Amino acid sequence: MPLLALTGGIASGKSTIAALLAGRGAVVVDADAIVREVQAPGSPVLSAIAREFGDDVLTAEGALDRPALGARVFGHPDRLAVLNALVHPAVRAESQRRFDEAFARDPAAVVVYDVPLLAEARAGDAWDLVIVAHAPAETRVRRLIEGRGLSEADARARVGSQASDEDRLALADVVIDTSTTMDATRSQVDDLWARISPAD
Asked: How does pLDDT run across 20-70, given as a tens digit for each residue?
């Protein structure tokens, strides 16, 4: 019942790797999806965010205004740390519930936690394997500009607000290089799956 952490910086190809692993039968638990759920309108986490950062980080409908909040925290490590302290405990509890549920359904499952902030928040947890999706920072900046329409300044701020490549790579049991072709990434995922999947 391996429990794997899959991490990588923004625009590193982590979500692509998660999708490839899911296609091979892994149960993927998505930290970003859990974050959105614990910040839903009416949630204790969202109320705490509004108290800390002001009601103008909420939309007229009472949902989180992600761009407004992002403008407050990206490039401001102290404010980002405050936000993380509000959000991470709820995410940790919900993710653990999902891990337990997956293994209860299938004790032989391969469970992959797709988690961008592993180095920042959960580096010390008892993962069976840590997988790092890796592409150089300049490649990721370019992907954010070309693929997501960010300005160069915004792209660099997003990349710079996360753990360094060195910190992430220091945690890695497996590094999947996503800087070349999709075929090359797929081949590396195939090799990983052969290593971790249950024997037939």
From this structure: 999 999 999 999 999 999 999 999 999 999 999 999 999 999 999 999 998
Q: According to the 3-state scheme, what is the secondary structure of the chain?
A: CCEEEEEECCCCCHHHHHHHHHHCCCEEEEHHHHHHHHCCCCCHHHHHHHHHHCHHHECCCCCECHHHHHHHHCCCHHHHHHHHHHHHHHHHHHHHHHHHHHHHHCCCCCEEEECCCHHHHHCCCCCCEEEEEECCHHHHHHHHHHHHCCCHHHHHHHHHCCCCHHHHHHHCCEEEECCCCHHHHHHHHHHHHHHHCCCC
pLDDT above 60 for 200 = no
Three-point CA angle 43, 86, 95, nearest 5°: 75
Please give the model's pTM, rounded to 2 decimal places.
Answer: 0.86
Rounded distance between C-alpha atoms, residue 143 and residue 154, angstroms: 12
The CA distance from 156 to 193, in Å, is: 33
Identity of residue 171: L
